[in-house]
Amino acid sequence: MSDQGCYSPSFKKPSDILRMRRKRARSEGVCAGSRNASSTPPTLAGVRPFSPGPLLKSQGRASGGVKRRNPFANIENTYNSPKKRAVSCTEDASECEKVALIAAPCEEERLEEHNARSGASFSDLLNNISTKQTGIQKKLSCSEEDSLFEEDLFEAEKTSPILKSPESPKIAVLPHPEICREYPADWSLKTRLLFTSPHSFSWAEHLKAQEEAQGLSLHCRAEYASLPQTIQDPRSCTELRCGFQQCLQYWQHPSLPWLTLFPRVGAERKFAGKNTPWAQDAILQQSLMSEWSVSLTSLYSLLKGRLCPYFYVCSYQFTVLFRAAGLSGAKGITALLSPTTRGLREAMRADGIEFSLPLLEEKRKNKENSSSHLNNSNQTDGDQPSSAVDKDKYEDDDDDDDDDDDGGISWLQDMGLQDKIKKPDAISIKLRKEHSEVRLDHRPESVVLVEGSNTFTLINFLINCKSLVAGSGSQAGLPPTLLAPTAFRGATLQMLKARSVNVKTQVRTGYQDVCSLEVTGPIMPHALHALTQLLKPSQKGGFSVSLYTHEPSAVLNVPVAKPSESDQQNDAAQCLDQSGLQQSTVQQLVEPSTLGKSALRQLHMRDYSYTWNS
Asked: What is the C-alpha to C-alpha distance for residues 211 and 243, in angstroms, rounded to an integer?
């Protein structure tokens, strides 16, 4: 065959080629295994990686060839899945720590040799070694839920320029969030509370007859049982269940079982179609108003003696909040009335009631402060006269309109045009002057503040005011609703409605059980605070609540005390010990209001610390 021209000396049979390929693959596999043995990550037995490669930790394979990637593999049956990676991380943590401890001296010796050659300081190199060991320990301490997050954080720390520089190896620590043990008092009335918590509210339902009786007795006697800081089994805690029953009690007048007497503003549809026998009976209406007047007088007497902390008068047009001396930072008795109209304010002035409009006065003070600041800045620039006149011109447009009276058209007579121009009549002049006051009607800015002895005059005004009761409509002849936390003459003991529901909500990883507790009714400030104090130990310091506010009463959170007067209320708060409220609730209600004309919408407790939205 050597004589033939087509013969090639490098010709090999197919069997020889296959033998050489197997030998080459076997030798490459042995070399690669010995070279990467120390750098191979901890793996699970019998688990194939997501990337192409041989079966991990496989035994008994005849050939060392590289197996192609499994097209049916997914993230759940590979080593890179979060579950299997967390398992392998916890199983091989001890082995990795041993490897790190063994490799640390070797790394130190290698860095010492490099230090001798390059002249770098040995302390900087030790800092680099400690940083690497800290990173390894961080990577090994990953949990099942946060494995992905910890690994990403570890990779970010390795690539961070702050950690690479030996001069600043420390990580900036975020400031610890401020712990708030109390939330501001909310004087608005709530129609519904929705509590949610990861812990069950089953302890709040199916109370025993003895527990209901004991809670009722504690409420009537104004006694409060002390609860432990943490409650392991709320269902077996009698004090907790009795305290919950006590928190739901309140007093109301009048009481008509077939009518829901709260809310009253904008509730005509709820009263439509109901049986109202007093609507066409004048004698019955007079009897209802007579009993109502006795109850209102009794409430004011209790308020004056600080035996009742506060009470509400809910009419079909407005709501009045009476507060005892010392509450919300005020020196004496205060009353807030909202919303009001120009006719109501004129009637109050006619009866000699002195009042103020706190939101309107605050707005005027802000304007005066801004104008004085602007004048001072203009004086320094030398342009004060002209700028001040221009500012007054733009700021007092309404006042200029009010100055149009009978003498305002005298300049027309000089021109001989008095006959051609129609002279405004007295009614038009009066309406123009009262335009700014009429604009406040039914707005939050129309809230009226009455203080001191004028509150007693306001009580007489409410008793004798004919417009306090609707003359027509579905609420015709029905007296306003009186709500109070303590008993008074003619009052009926009522109870808020509560029910607990367990639901499933969708979260990122699936569905989670969420327990909820719903409370409905006229919820006053003391009831809200008592419920949160009760749920703090029962829900282990973690719950959220959505508050549904009766909007006409949201403006009742306006401040009524000056900042200089708020520090003198310690003595006044001590006199409220017999008001029937818990001491912690009194301490909250004594603080000056900070919510302004807004109300609480969301309240959250995490690790016994409050956060809220208004």
From this structure: 9
End-to-end CA distance of the chain: 101
Indicate whether 397 pLDDT > 60.
no
User: Residues in the chain, how many?
Assistant: 614
CA Rg value for the chain: 40
Q: CA neighbours within 13 Å on the CB side: how many for 140? A: 18
Instruction: Answer yes or no: is 83 within a domain.
Output: no
- Return the H-helix or E-strand segment holding 605: strand 602-606
Nearest residue to 557 via CA among 444, 453, 437: 444
Question: Do 529 and 598 share a domain, yes or no?
Answer: yes
> Which of 87-101, 125-139, 190-204 has the highest mean predicted lDDT (pLDDT)?
190-204
Rounded Cα distance between 486 and 219, Å, is 9
Q: Indicate yes or no: pTM above 0.85.
A: no
d(CA 578, CA 585): 13
Boundaries of domain holding 115: 91-164
Domain count, the chain: 4
Q: Using one digit for the tens of pLDDT, what is the confidence trace for 265-303?
A: 989 888 988 889 998 899 999 999 999 999 999 999 999
* Tokens 């009522």, located at residue: 494
Q: Are residues 516 and 603 in the same domain?
A: yes
Say whether 194 sits in a helix, a strand or coil: strand
Are residue 278 and residue 333 in the same domain, yes or no? yes
- Rounded to 10 deg, the angle between the 238-247 and 525-538 helix axes is 160
Residue 388 lies in a domain: no
* Together in a domain, 268 and 339: yes
**152 or 496, greater pLDDT:** 496
- Give pLDDT tens digits for 47-105: 445 444 444 444 444 444 556 666 666 655 555 555 555 555 555 545 444 444 444 44
With respect to residue 53, please indicate whether it lies within any of the assigned structural domains: no
Segment holding 321, helix H or strand E: strand 319-323
Q: Considering only CA atoms, which of 319, 323, 299, 320 is closest in space to residue 310?
A: 323
> pLDDT-based confidence at 18, cuts 50/70/90?
confident
Q: 3-state SS string over 527-555?
A: HHHHHHHHHHHHCCCEEEEEEEECHHHHH
